[in-house]
Amino acid sequence: MSATSNATPDRAGGDDAAWRRPGRLWLLGSALGWIVLAVVGLVPLLLVSVTALLIPVWIGLPLVLSSFALVRAFAGASRRRAARVLGRPVEHPYRPGVPGGLFARLKRVVRDPATWRDLAWLVVNATAGLVLRVLVVAVFLAAIAAFALPLIWPALPSVDPVWVGVVRVTDQTGANLVAVEGGLVLALWWLFTPALMRADATLARWLLAPTERSRLTRRVSELAETRAVSVDTQAAELRRIERDLHDGVQARLVALGMSLGMAEEAVASDPAAAKELLAEAKLATGTALAELRDVVRGIHPPVLADRGLDGAVRALALRTPVPTEVETVLDGRLPPPVESAAYFAVAEALTNVIKHSRASRCWVRMRQEAGSLDIVVGDDGAGGADPARGSGLEGIRRRLAPFDGTLNLDSPPGGPTVLTMELPCESSSPKTSPSSGTA
Hints:
Layout: H1 24-40, H2 42-52, H3 60-86, H4 102-111, H5 113-125, H6 128-152, E1 162-164, E2 167-169, H7 172-208, H8 212-269, H9 271-299, H10 302-318, E3 324-329, H11 336-357, E4 362-369, E5 372-379, H12 393-400, E6 406-410, E7 417-424, E8 435-438
Parallel strand pairs: 3-4
Antiparallel strand pairs: 1-2, 3-8, 4-5, 5-7, 6-7
Helix pairs in contact: 1-6, 1-7, 2-3, 3-4, 3-5, 3-7, 5-7, 6-7, 8-9, 10-11, 11-12
């Protein structure tokens, strides 16, 4: 099967298992590490400030862009940490890049509100964030020190009575009471550490995640892109239909008209020749009808309208030379545009299997749940699909884009190749016949 790229937007996401909240020891280690990084994070901020002064000199442009790249790298690490602590993904807020020179890139970065929120985070990270992390580590160390005091008390030189928390230590008994106090401190640490670290991560998410305005801007950009793709796809489809009609059906009908005209002239003088011409005309009529059916089938297959997506895909699998297993769980008829997009996506995927995979078998799985149609097309072929070699699956991506569909490819060398598609949808009729079987 040919390769294609992932069409999903870039996001720091994952399933529920991947975002399970970490334990307290992980939180402690994270707090300790990010105490150091809170100070290190001020270095990119300083670099941005210094290199910005060099912009009037040409060398300042690449330097300030590199400094902003460091800021974004640090912010990205902060997002991943916040996502781990909060147990849910934190999306990237940056606007998509545009081609251009150094000045154009700098202009885009400076005009992106997310850039300034990243810089603000560096300051918050080194102040409020640092306080929260130091509190977590300091309370833990205080508890450990309290536990250690009874052990080291005999080795300590004579000291004046000293207060440790609420305990006045004068002898070994007092040191033992400090250990009890340490237990209470450790209990408080155990109780409040997740809340403190979630507060730290919430600060990061508040500044580093996309705002509602940026989400709306990105959504408008995505809709504009998918609209352009949809318009281009429709225009290409119209050109294909026009070409098929002009080069196929129209040529056949012109030939048919010429044959009938010559047969009309030959009826009186040469009945045998007229009979041959009429036979040719009859053959041309059948060929023209077959080509016309192919054109109509390319627009919207009759089997799709009659039998729905399940029946249409099974009919498609029967015509595939590679043995194809089909399993479907559908809640009913889907909206016609979704059915059409899904059918042609499966058809293109099976065509790629035939052309490129050298597979002995393939399979199609379709499942509708939670308002989404999930389609998996796989084969046991050679694998190693490479998007750079060109792919008919780019057409699949264009078909799915207007529906906010996603496309993922897994094709390791040696196979198997698995193409996963997801289409948001809702059934347009009550449940009819979820089915499973082999076509």
